[in-house]
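Sequence in, structure out. Go.
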Amino acid sequence: MKQLRSTSWILLAGLLVLFALPVAAQDGSDNVIASNLNNPRHLYYAEDGTLYIAEAGLGGENQIETEAGPVAYGNTARLLALPAGGGEPEVVVDNLVSAVAFNNYVGVNSVLVEPERIWLVLGQAPAIEGERVNGVLVLGSDLSEERFIDFAALEEANNPDNDFDVAANPIDIAVSEDGTYYVLDASANALYSLTADGEPEVFLAWEDLPVPSGIDIGPEGDLYVSFLSAFPFETGSARIERWTAEGELVETYGGLTGVTDVLVADDGTIYAVEMSTRFGDLGWEPDAGRVVIVSADGVAPVAEGLNFPYGIAMGPDGMLAVSVNAAFVEPGTGSVIVIDPAAAGDVEPAPVAPELPAETPEPSM
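Output:
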């Protein structure tokens, strides 16, 4: 358990927001356990209770020319660790690429930490000589590089969603009890599977271009995938899908909006992060994010009025850690808060969603 498509790479980067502007940070809670962060994204609790924070960074002063024009970047993305006993986050890995995209940043999207290695999911950025971007960087316990998996090359070779726009943006990672790793690619609209030392293969692909955003593995071994949904991000158009390890669709939970992460607790409870529940003329609206419990009956809000929440993980004490102020805010205003899942309210019926495909595309094996 877990602890916009466009013709240019820049529109596909990060959270794919076209118009959102920086706003004053609101963390929505007094239970802040980490602060002064720069665009924190997915979270991961290690077995020893350490909380790892993927930080997208602040771009930089360098520029590189792309088909879409000049792109600013710098080595400001990082992986941080918050000790189990609390305190200040410690830098584990830094000097990673962070690129700018429409007042937003893309850098380290996610992390998976094991006793022998660390898997860093590095998001979409233009190819920069000598830099690791658009892939998964695997580090040994001494933080030396063991391998780099180039998802941009995989997208070029496979184009699993059959879209005319060939672009990669690996966004999240999970591992099953049998040692199968799953890497989700938001821009490729695909889920890859691989072994620790093997090469990735396309496990699932979605040709309706729903922008997959997060993955978790339930206690029964099923895969849960969340989706941001496609532009213009209509209210209720996002979903979570549950798949077996054999690639069979078990259930779809609809009526969600702007989902960026999914978490399945040991008791089977499904949690989702909605980055914002409203998308208007100026983009995603601030202070409209929430954490919800998802079931076949609808959603039960756990925390509302959050400012651009993104990642979620459950600590050893059963509390939920959530990254907030994860995009479109001023530098240093990102944070991680703790939420009590017992605060869930009454179940709300799922809102009426725009018409979706008749069925989810079958897995591409």
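Check: Residues 4-29, 352-365 have pLDDT under 50 and may be disordered. The domain at 9-343 is CATH 2.120.10.30 (Neuraminidase).
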